[in-house]
Amino acid sequence: MQNNPTKIIVHHSADITQTDQLAKINEYHKERDFPVSSLGYYVGYHYLINHAGQLTQTRKIEDEGAHCIGLNFDSIGICMEGNFDIELPTDAQKATLGNLLVELCAQFNFDVTDIFPHRCFRNTSCYGNLLSPDWARILFLDYKDKNNEKIPMCSQN
Q1: What is the pLDDT of residues 2-22, one digit of tens each?
Q2: What is the rounded CA–CA span in Å between residue 109 and residue 127?
Q3: Cα separation of 34 and 79, whole Å?
């Protein structure tokens, strides 16, 4: 089955180590029998943003996700390294996430209200209790304004 996204779900890795979390997450998801992506990763998220702000696409958008039970065929999963119950995202992570949200919202004509923390759908603190439920939406709006691009209207309903 192909992913037909209608929303973006933002996660944190819940891990404070800054050593190759991509490999660590990939191995953990492989052990949990997550489906391998067309890009060769077991990582369940479509994108991973490391502490330095480096963005890695681990699944094509059309690939089934493995990041939010019941929503893996109609969402884009983005994970930031870190545990935002005890630390805040780096400025580099915020910049990368903000720009990625603007890009994805434009590409899929998503509305700001189509951006969610994982905790909206599961009994988890993800994307971290130090971040408000609307933190990613506010970040999106800040970066949409900063980019000052002509993008398809993502209304602020």
Answers
A1: 999 999 999 999 998 877 899
A2: 23
A3: 16
